[in-house]
Fold each of these.
Amino acid sequence: MRGSSMTDIGAFNEKLVLQTIRSAPDGIGQAEVVRRSQLSRQAVSLIARRLLADGLVEQAGTRISGPGKPHTLLRVVADARLAIGVHLDPAHIAVVICDLAARPVARTTLAPPTEDPRADLERVAGAIAELSRSLGASGPVPGEGEAVLSTHRRLLGIGIAAPAGLDADAGILRNPPWIPGWRDVPVVDALSAVTGLPATLDKDTNAALTGEIWTRHLDAAQTILYLYVGHGVGSAVSGGGRVHRGGSTQAGEIGHLPIGRADRICSCGRHGCQSLYTDAHVLVAAAREAGIAMSGKVGTTAALHALATAAADGSEAARAIIGSHASALGEAILILAGVHDPQRIIIGGPTWPALRDVGEAEVRRVLGDWLEDTAGVLESSHLGDDVGAIGAASLFLEQELAPGTGAPVGT
Ligand SMILES: [Zn+2]
């Protein structure tokens, strides 16, 4: 998380008011903003005027509640500002431009990272430029007076999501095992330099959870456990609306979590590590062994798609392979649920859409007692294949626009 500032929003109170208005997509009255933000009426009124003038907020009609005059509703103008999300995944590079609700307004998918990070980052910068141009061509954002901004001025910055093996504070990919050619690559500085935009970096797992919290306005008081199912399975956890990153952005790396099985031995020397049962290549190998149709030498993504299609078409072998993956995942989740005591468990990640039809029921079965005892919620992410890129954009939105953990000042 590198330092970058958003001078036209800046102050904590302003971010707090913006967040309060944002959490009510259908509009919210000023009195309710005062109540929820616990700021003074004068402060809210002043900030609301400034947000209206900046075009970040608009008036959304009036609401009559009880006696007295009807009050004006305020609503965030979702496309008043935009953030770019870049997801470096072993299977592909996804680039999106999202509005303030983290909804993609433009997107593209590039070939996977190679052993040449410099050339790859040039491809990413090219894609960002192209997507920005495509939005610019559609004309200025509807608004009034000075609120009309060009696409480039609306772009706040870039969030980058990448697999584990990175230093988020320094903005550097250190030694990501899933992207072997990328050692000590300063992605934040590199993309900032070519685009002129501030950037921030975090793990794909943390980005996905941030995207979930940002897009759904999830209750900040809840503890949320996220399982990111991609080439491997990683986890992320949040409390108080904040993702827990740990001391070196390594929190939630659960590949070597022993899930209580003894039939396979890991390269780390122990038995039953989670990754032995849930890595994508393990699934693909099992599918090939079972003779599930995969024409020629296809990539992991295509192979998983073929496996999911076979399962949907009623192949018992395909359903058993996905079920076995999901039961191992469920056992890992059960251990993590004991550690973190979450109220909500979300499963997502780029591979999960292919597995969820069979997999979610199996995870639910393994977690049966826990779900019953705790009344916890288990669900699949609604963000789909673009979860990493949308999450990456959310990282930037959250860094720039969320009020953070400090105390309100000047109330
Ligand atoms: Zn291991």
Amino acid sequence: MDLFLPPIVLGLLGLVLGLLIFVFGYYFSVKEDTRIDDIEKMLPRYNCGACGYGGCRDMAHGLLEHKAVVSQCKPIKPEAKAALMKFLDELYKAEAGTQKH
Ligand code: SF4
């Protein structure tokens, strides 16, 4: 019996800790805003910093938070700029629609 006690105790301890990790991960996880990825993909992704931000992801945050405008991105191509502006326009309209309620 003494031979089986340590593996049983360690197994139960592992089970309890695993459950705790699962519960904490489930209730305290931070959901990533996928709109930032969508906006970042539409930017040139040169991470040159010409927009005044540290990179394209920061610029995407700025655009999403209405702190930046697309024209701050200097190397963006006109077609990509138009597509991004259309995307943001729809996003901002959707936001405005949800804030009214
Ligand atoms: S200027 Fe454009 S390409 Fe350069 S970091 Fe800013 S968003 Fe990215």
